[in-house]
């Protein structure tokens, strides 16, 4: 994380990851002030540790549906109903969900147009799958530099797709979402009653930095 920052990583405002303690600590120390969100896909997988093997499918399905809601207030109402419905049958699960689900709801700070793709790490995992697929075709590289050139070309291609493809949006906030105000930090007691300025959330993505990160991970 520090190496990325030393190479010019800046402007980070929102981070999505799993609940790895070391990664969370690095984000808090190196990227102080960013909003961190726990990936809801990993969260649902972790929930399986708190239920018996023959769990009622409706229980986890209803929990998954909460991430399709458009409003945080609606999520909280559905969560209260879900806890009341399943608390008696799965007290261990409902207690764990109640204690940890707030970590997965940070994406409601984002404009609506970005929430679908920023509430999980699926975009990054799809990129990793594509890199594995393309490098598997080549199989044998003459040297590390040739592999890195391919990875860089793939990340540049994906970077442009994220910016331009209709599937991922243009990363430009619409007029209506620009009017949305940032949600207050839950741990900031002084934020109560204070107005936050309207801000358009801009995401910066540097393909070269991403390829360097992937290359470093492969070299270790």
Mean pLDDT: 77
Low-confidence stretches: 174-206
Count of discrete alpha- or pi-helical segments spanning 4 or more residues: 11
The shape, in one word, is elongated
Q: Strands of the biggest beta sheet: in what spatial order? A: 1-2
**β-strand number:** 2
Structural class: mainly alpha
How is the biggest beta sheet arranged? 2 strands, parallel
- Give the radius of gyration: 20 Å
Order of helices and strands: HEHEHHHHHHHHH
What is the domain total for the residues? 3
Percent of sequence in beta strands: under 5%
Please give a structural write-up.
Strands 1-2 form a two-stranded parallel sheet. Residues 174-206 have low confidence and may be disordered. It has 11 helices and 2 strands. α5 runs antiparallel to α6 (91-100) and α8 (122-138) packs across α9 (144-164). The protein has helices at 2-6, 21-30, 40-47, 57-65, 72-86, 91-100, 112-118, 122-138, 144-164, 175-178, 207-219; strands at residues 14-17, 35-38. Helices cover 54% and strands 4% of the residues. It is elongated, with a radius of gyration of 20 Å. α2 (21-30) links the parallel β1 (14-17) and β2 (35-38). The chain has 220 residues and is mostly helical. It folds into 3 domains: 1-38, no CATH class; 40-108; 110-182 and 201-220, no CATH class.
Short summary of the structure?
The chain has 220 residues and is mainly alpha-helical.
């Amino acid at each position: 994380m520090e190496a990325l920052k030393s190479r010019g990583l800046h402007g980070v405002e929102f981070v999505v990851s799993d609940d790895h303690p070391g990664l969370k600590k690095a984000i808090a120390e190196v990227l102080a002030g960013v909003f961190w969100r726990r990936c809801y896909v990993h969260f649902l997988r972790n929930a399986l540790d708190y239920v018996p093997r023959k769990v009622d499918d409706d229980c986890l399905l209803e929990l998954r549906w909460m991430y399709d809601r458009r409003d945080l207030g609606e999520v909280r109402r559905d969560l209260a109903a879900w806890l009341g419905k399943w608390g008696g049958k799965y007290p261990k699960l409902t207690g764990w969900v109640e204690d940890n689900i707030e970590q997965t709801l940070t994406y409601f700070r984002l404009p609506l147009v970005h929430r679908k793709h920023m509430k999980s790490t699926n975009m990054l995992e799809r990129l990793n799958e594509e890199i594995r697929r393309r490098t598997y075709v080549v199989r044998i590289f003459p040297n590390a530099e040739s592999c890195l050139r391919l990875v860089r070309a793939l990340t540049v291609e994906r970077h442009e797709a994220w910016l331009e493809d209709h599937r991922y949006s243009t990363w430009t906030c619409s007029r209506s979402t620009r009017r949305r105000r940032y949600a207050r930090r839950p741990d900031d007691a002084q934020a109560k009653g204070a107005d936050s300025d309207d801000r358009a959330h801009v995401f910066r993505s540097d393909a070269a930095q991403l390829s360097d990160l992937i290359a470093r991970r492969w070299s270790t």
